[in-house]
Specification:
single chain, alpha+beta, eight-stranded mixed β-sheet, six-stranded mixed β-sheet
């Protein structure tokens, strides 16, 4: 296992197994009506099972003590697609300022490996019927939520803990095997396990779309000497009218998505920016926070 992969595995596995970090914003695996942020409405019922390169498994963290605005920018622990692509959030470099766009680690096990992942999920008890395992999590702790799309059905399993030893007697958990098998599945997904498929090279996913949270004013700086020159906003729609009003942001904040040709235009600019890079639009400097969109999220938006 390559050193970078080990680091990613340790970071994500700790999140999944401990279930004690912040929630990840999730998006249904196929198209649904748009919500207030411009992304598909998460309250919409699940659609028909995806085909081709559609989503087949996603693990996220939900709940926990975290600001609502921060929840929306968190990425899933891991996402798996029918063509065998496995995507997970990369480590954030321990530098300041960090990159504006979070990195997403990509590897592939092919369609045969994807079938092996679905079999492992079914063997773990993550298909068939929705389920909740363990007692209700503490108010400041997150639950691990695993969504599997298999044989035309979406199954959602929620875990307050993936460690059987932490499940108290009388909590209602009758099959600790599910907890153990699910923890093992996540660990395999975050390693270099090919699940019987053909392992492809590791790499970094290049987003095909972005969700942007924009706020009037330049980014706050911990050191004025690190100030960056403003970057001109490249799209035709000015930031003052971009997307929709961000009800969770400060006065004048906006939230919206960029897909298609606009994403192609803005992608390299966002990739070269840092967390303290100001953007200039309409004579005003703006702060931008970026959540890269995963393939199923872009597809749901028609991108």
């Amino acid at each position: 296992m390559a050193p970078a992969r080990i680091l990613v595995f340790l970071a994500a596995a700790a999140l999944a197994v401990g279930a004690c970090s912040a929630a990840a914003a999730t998006i249904p695996p196929s198209a649904s009506p748009a919500g207030p942020s411009g992304l598909p409405d998460q309250s919409a019922p699940p659609s028909q099972a995806p085909t081709g390169a559609g989503l087949i498994l996603r693990a996220t963290l939900e709940g926990g003590f975290i600001a609502p605005s921060a929840v929306r920018t968190r990425l899933p622990i891991v996402s798996v697609y029918a063509d065998g692509r496995i995507m997970s959030q990369g480590l954030t470099p321990a530098i300041y300022p960090g990159p504006l766009v979070p990195s997403i680690v990509l590897r592939s096990v092919g369609s045969t490996g994807a079938a092996g992942i679905l079999k492992a999920a079914a063997d773990a008890g993550l298909t068939g019927a929705d389920g909740s395992y363990g007692p209700a999590p503490a108010p400041d702790a997150a639950a691990t939520v695993i969504t599997v799309i298999h044989d035309g059905k979406q199954t959602v399993s929620t875990f307050s803990s993936l460690q059987p030893s932490q499940v108290q007697p009388g909590s209602g958990v009758t099959d600790e095997r599910v907890l153990t098998a699910t923890g093992q599945l996540l660990a395999r997904l975050m390693s270099n396990d090919s699940f019987g498929g053909t392992a492809g090279p590791d790499g970094t996913y290049t987003p095909l779309g972005f969700q942007l949270f924009v706020t009037p004013g330049a980014p706050e700086l911990s050191d004025p000497n690190l100030a960056r020159p403003p970057v001109s906003w490249p799209l035709a729609t000015p930031l003052a009218s971009f997307g929709k009003v961000d009800t969770l942001g400060t006065n004048g904040a906006r939230v919206g998505v960029v897909v298609g040709p606009d994403a192609t235009t803005i992608g390299p600019i966002l990739a070269s920016a840092t967390q303290i890079t100001p953007f200039l639009s309409g004579g005003t400097q703006w702060t931008i926070v970026v959540k890269p969109l995963l393939p199923d999220e872009v597809a749901a938006l028609g991108g």
